Amino acid sequence: MTPLILVLGAACAILSLVHLASVAVAIMRIRASGAVLSRDQDEGVSIVRPVCGLDNFAEETLLSSFLLAHRNYEVLFCVAHDRDPIVPLVQRLMTNHPGVPARLLIGNHAVSANPKLNNIVKGWMAARHQWIVMSDSNVLMPSDYLGRLLAAWKPDTGLVCSPPIGCAPQGLWAEVECGFLNTYQARWQYAADALGFGFAQGKTMLWRRDLLEAAGGIRVLASEAAEDAAATKLVRRAGLRVRLVTAPFPQPLGKRRFGEVWKRQLRWARLRRDTFKLFFVPELLTGALVPFACCIMCAAAADWPLAGVALSFLAVWYGAEAMLASAAGWQLSLLSPLAWIVRDLLLPTLWVMSWLGDDFVWRGNEMRVASRSSSA
Q1: What is the pLDDT of residues 227-262, one digit of tens each?
Q2: Is residue 30 very low, low, confident or very high in pLDDT (cuts 50, 70, 90)?
Q3: What pLDDT score does 191 carry?
Q4: Which pLDDT value is given to residue 327?
Q5: Where are the domains of the chain?
């Protein structure tokens, strides 16, 4: 074989082994969820939920705030404007569940270009408890939601997070979004966490109030375009770790269009590129496309049957993802393999496009990533 073919073969083997190793790590972490033990049920927790507009499954996800097993918690719903269509739903849920302390806070504190952070500030300031959870409105909270978060807190912890796990998809593009969220992004987050450098994700973040206040308070999260990137860097500077729950929480998706999925993934890609460049650069190699191309070129040079090699590669690569989805109880259907292939075909284009611009739109707000050099 020529040196080029040897290099291609080695690249295919290495990338495939890394893929399989990340799957194995994620499976081990998810299966450890049976060992979760809750802290004291009387320990007070404040849940801050920013709300904006009526998302798919809004009633189901917000209702879950009132059905938690924890005995001592409050819910603070934060909305920027009293004309927001989500307000009547929140008010009705609070009226129907008087046994759970809950408040609707209206107003906006313009501490950053991030509208979500601006919405959250008032909730942080109004929270009564030492433990504070920031949870997006589209997170579906299981009854043991707070127990899982508190159980993940160790002496070296500065923040506990959960990657969102897509569920209840309707149609191909929602399946593709599940493919991005579940067996791709969540998998790599658990691999990073296992190596000791976990990343925060803003869907769910459990803080201990004194730690964030000692670093300058919630306004410090305005130092980056995304509050979770700022949180990651803040925790690492303090010599602490970002940890993940062993069993992450679902986000029901419903119907999705291609444009919605593309804009959301491009926004996240540009934010990762801006805030963690050293970790973002290798993302080009994390999908199946590069190792598959290397595999096919090697097979052609060796005069092996291309169809058989291609099918074998795809069976191993996506079979591993199917094993992870099955073991974790994540979305797995007849559409899943097609969705994973579509995702991996999109990944190189997303990676390239992330370098070609700084702007993105979040809930109708035009924003830009920061124009600074920010490596991990």
Answers
A1: 999 999 999 999 999 999 989 999 999 999 999 999
A2: confident
A3: 93
A4: 95
A5: 3-27+275-368, 38-260
More confident residue, 316 or 35: 316
How confident is residue 57, by pLDDT bands cut at 50, 70 and 90? very high
Instruction: Indicate the burial class of 303 (C-beta count within 10 angstroms; 0-12, 13-18, 19 or more).
Output: exposed
261 in Cβ contact with 176 (< 8 Å)? yes
- How many other CB atoms are there within 10 angstroms of residue 33's CB atom? 15
DSSP states along 154-219: -TTEEEEE---EEEEEESHHHHHHHHHIIIIIIHHHHHHHHTT-----TTEEEEEHHHHHHTT-GG
**What distance in Å separates the CA atoms of residue 347 and residue 349, rounded to the nearest whole number?**
5
Please say whether the beta carbons of 133 and 150 come within 8 A.
Answer: no
Question: Cα 89 from chain centroid?
Answer: 26
Show the DSSP H helices in the chain as ranges: 3-31, 58-63, 87-96, 115-126, 145-151, 172-180, 187-194, 209-214, 227-237, 258-275, 277-280, 289-301, 306-328, 336-355
Would you list the DSSP string of 194-208? HTT-----TTEEEEE
* Dist. CA 108–CA 54, nearest whole Å: 19
pLDDT at position 170 over 80? yes
Q: Which two tokens stand for residue 74?
A: 């409050």
User: Does 362 have pLDDT greater than 70?
Assistant: no
What is the CATH topology of the domain spanning 38-260?
Spore Coat Polysaccharide Biosynthesis Protein SpsA; Chain A (3.90.550)
